Amino acid sequence: MDDTRNALQAGLPERRKAGQASHLPEISPISLTSLLYALSLFIFYYQGFIGGTSFIAAAAGVLGWVLMFYAVFRSGAHLRMADPSLVLPQIGAALATMLLVAYLEPSTRIALVPFMLVAFSFGVCRLTTSTITLLAMLCLLSHLGIVLAHAQVEGYGMEFRAGLLQWFVLALTLPAMIAVGKQIQTLRLTLRATRHQLEHYEERSIRDDLTGLYNRRQLQMDLERARLTCGARSASFSLCLIDVDHFKQINDSHGHLAGDTVLRDFARIARDSVRDSDILGRFGGDEFMLILPETDLKGAVVHAERLRVYAQFLDFSRVMEQRHISLSIGVAQYRPGEKVTDLIARADAGLYRAKQLGRNRVEWVD
Ligand SMILES: Nc1nc2c(ncn2[C@@H]2O[C@H](COP(=O)(O)OP(=O)(O)OP(=O)(O)O)[C@@H](O)[C@H]2O)c(=O)[nH]1
After folding, report:
1. Suppose 360 and one of 113, 122, 264, 326 were both cysteines; which one would form an S-S bond, judging by CB atoms 3.0 to 4.6 Å apart?
2. What is the pLDDT of residues 252-266, one digit of tens each?
3. Tens digits of per-residue pLDDT, 150-203?
């Protein structure tokens, strides 16, 4: 039964926003990159560039911290931290592993530059400029230290010059990559702000300014959606057209501001008294529309009657001598196959009848 109601509600912006909460991946891209690094070490081992012990120790180290971050993400512990994405500790762990392996196994230095750049690329969009710059300087200094330490042992020959050249390339490309990353970050922030603005305008475009309820255009779209949903599921829904009695007189005697207060206050109690699944809006002037999914005529009349009674208890003594208002309501149940305009016309006929029979009542035309 709730399916139709949910399908109807699916058109509402609140629903559109629901489910947008992002979930962080449990195996992060940084962890995946480190696993790829471990795989490249296997090739070094396979080709005989590094020993089996070094490979196993390095791979176990990578696997160890990847599993540790996996456990943190799975347990939800990351949500309690200042940056739940844990980008800095992950990048730190990846870089420290790579530098250590490059120090212990000089032949792996060739893998250092590309993997370092990839690790940094995950941080440039998330970390502040000062943090990423500091991290880059630390990496460059450590890398230079490794090259010099190896030179102390192996001498300052071709190997040293090649290592220095590699370091120089990294020293040039890293700042450039940080600059590009910062531009992407700015673009991301602009996009996010634009999306929020769009959502704001989208929300405003479907609301009535005075009451905050859905406006006529949105009501008509919701009615059409309700009709299609009912056609597909052979369920039904009902419609109430609600009109404030002698509203023109209120305006004429007490002014438009008093009239506005009446509309606003009524909208508030009407919104509070309907179910979450019901769709309430201002159809125009002093006329409101209530769409009741999964509700037959009898149920709709009960809803309308309750609303009529609630409205009678509203006290407007602060804005006009006439303390109370009354409502006339026309109700109609959707007939399979009929057009939305016909349904509205039948509810309107009920409303007309309520007015004819003396107002302050709920009527329908069968
Ligand atoms: N204050 C205020 N008045 C509005 C607004 N929109 C429409 N109106 C007025 O609402 C009044 C609607 O009156 P009607 O529905 O025609 O007549 P009524 O006095 O309610 O009479 P019955 O419906 O027969 O009881 C008109 O005077 C409009 O000018 C608004 O946003 N604020």
Report:
1. 326
2. 999 999 999 999 999
3. 999 989 899 899 999 999 999 999 999 888 888 888 898 999 999 999 999 999
Pocket test for ligand 1, best of 211, 286, 348 (most atoms within 8 A of CB): 286
Q: Is 324 in the pocket of ligand 1 (CB under 6 A)?
A: no
Q: Could you report how far apart the first and last alpha carbons of the chain are, in Å?
A: 25
Answer whether 273's CB lies under 8 Å from 310's CB: yes
With a 6 Å cutoff on the Cβ, whether 260 touches ligand 1 is: yes
For the beta carbon of residue 104, count every other beta carbon within 10 angstroms: 14
3-state SS of 219-264 is HHHHHHHHHHHHHHHCCCEEEEEEEECCHHHHHHHHCHHHHHHHHH
Is 215:281 a contact under the CB 8 Å cutoff? yes
Is the ipTM reported for this complex over the cut 0.90? yes
Supply the residue whose CA is at minimum distance from atom 13 of ligand 1.
Answer: 248
Q: Yes or no: say if 170 and 142 are a contact pair by the CB < 8 Å rule.
A: no
79, 87, 88, 267, 296 from 82: Cα distances, Å: 8, 11, 11, 42, 52
Whether the pTM exceeds 0.90: the reply is no
Task: Give the domains, in start order, of the chain with CATH numbers.
Answer: 2-203 (no CATH), 216-364 (3.30.70.270)
- Whether 245 is in the pocket of ligand 1, judged by its Cβ within 6 Å, is yes
pLDDT digits (tens, 9 = 90+) for 211-235: 999 999 999 999 999 998 887 666 7
Q: Is the CB of 355 under 6 A from ligand 1?
A: yes
